[in-house]
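We emphasize that the prediction below concerns an isolated chain of 224 residues; any contacts that depend on oligomerization or on bound cofactors are therefore not represented. The input was used exactly as deposited, without trimming of termini.
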Amino acid sequence: MGILSKFVKVSAVGSVASVGVFLGMTRKIEEVPLSTSDYLFNSVHFRTYNPLQNPTTHDLFIRKVPLSEIDPTLLENKGKLVEKFCAGVWGGLGYAFQRAYLARKYQGPLTAKQLWSRQELKDATYEPGTQITDHFEVIEKTPERIVVRCGDSPLKRDVRASDGLFEMSAVVKPEEGVAVFGLKSIFYQGLGKAESEPMPSHIAWLHKLYTKLWLETAIHRVTR
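Result of the prediction step, given as a token string:
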């Protein structure tokens, strides 16, 4: 997956240099099977950007947090929790290295209206059309989820060789006394017919580690 693969290798490996610390930090994160019956696989976004229905590399990780640990101000209005969680993904430590790298390569006059600084990323509400560090664009927002298109520059509007959908979700479940936070990824080759998944197994494994890092560091933005 091009630039994503580079970041997964560098960021994930660097972040788990201390395996014990990483495993302890992410021990409450669960990987959940992601079926092709999931709405993202049947969305207009997936059909448009993966017109030949090429194979995907996909995963879903969730983290349940007791409502007693959530910042109560984020529970007062629907949609605020997922906004702050999303801001934690992009403005948090998990994305810091990748953000800095992309800024060195792609920040300039053509991308000046995109979000680049940590403060911008932490303060944004992530409305559809928001572009993030020349590699992500918000394409859907509801009170419980925010979906971005990834895989290449949002300046490339058409079907791309490397493409994907990435969902951040925050679902409050009062009956269980928890909020469930999720990161869902679907990657695919958009241009041309592909016979295999876009990520080899070792890159997919590193991507899972990176996703766990993003999820855990983002959680800190929504707790007391």
